[in-house]
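Before we proceed, please read the two lines closing this message. Tell me what the token row says about the fold.
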Amino acid sequence: MLAQLIRAERYGQPSSAFVIELVPVPSLQPDECLVKVMAAGVNHNGVWAARGYPVDVIELQRSRGEPYDFHIAGSDASGIVVAVGKEVCGISVGDEVVLHCGWWDRDAVADEIMDKSAKIWGYEVNFGAFAEYTRVREQAILPKPAHLSWEQAASYMLCGATAYRMLHGFAPHTVKPGDVVLIWGGSGGMGSMAIQLVNAAGGIPIAVVSSDEKAEYCQQIGARGSINRQKYKHWGTLEDIGDSARYVQWLSEAKRFQREIWSLVGEKKNPNIVIEHPGEDTFPTSSFVCEAGGMVVICAGTSGYIGTFDIRYQWMRQKRFQGSHFANSAQCVAFNNLVVEGLVNPCLTRVFDFEDLPEAHQIMLDNRGLLGNFVIRIGSQT
């Protein structure tokens, strides 16, 4: 089969890390299925795999006994089942499906993504979506929404299930009617899913973006309002709290940001939940503007991994900082059902041909015009 391969000697910019090569179709374990990939979603897993940072995925897999000197990324896909392992039940050859990236053992704990066996297909597990065929475990297969194209169906699962867990997975801090939710990167893949999920729960989504075009897009898909972060100057790690002049400058900007949230909401009301993924640049502000007794839930560090904050606002106002990583089986099913029912739109905005996959990931790394979700045509273009 043809696949967009990453090799260790090419780690670096996505535009040069991915190369189309011919490799054998993967063999199946008894609980796995082989799927003909019709389309595959683009997300940061592919960017991180291409760079070999923060994890050298090829070396990681070798340390676990994998024999391959290459990696096939891709953690979202739609396709057609073409073979099933002997222990697979309820899935048949010919089924039209979407795939999620959760990979865990059959005897995993109830919250499977917390199990010691949990991995991410297409990142920690080889033979991901960026090939003509892929292998997945049976629990990662869900029915394709009949009203969606192959491309639309490939675009939403990773970002959507991640956002669903962040909003519904950490009781009692789950989104409720009237809750303000601050969503960083509101115009991107996860942000576009989070905006819709907050609306579906009766909450008030406020998006943070980097341009007026992105702000307009967020409002088109349901944001109450958007904040352009380019109008503020206090991003990055929070340093020198003991330097009163510098700290007062930072605090003045953070309070100005907070007042813009109040203006958009229409009352002096802070976010009950903050959907965090930039990390280093934004975490100090997230921790400050979060409501007393609220939660900052973080699933990535796309701007860096150093998390700083003024701890006085955390303990005195009893705020929760919660890590979140993808989703469990029940959350994946619940989110996919919302798409099947038409309550969440995939927000697909760009479709690339297979040979243009490296450029799609470079655009994501460079943050060039990110609106909604990107996908790669594979089987659907033939």
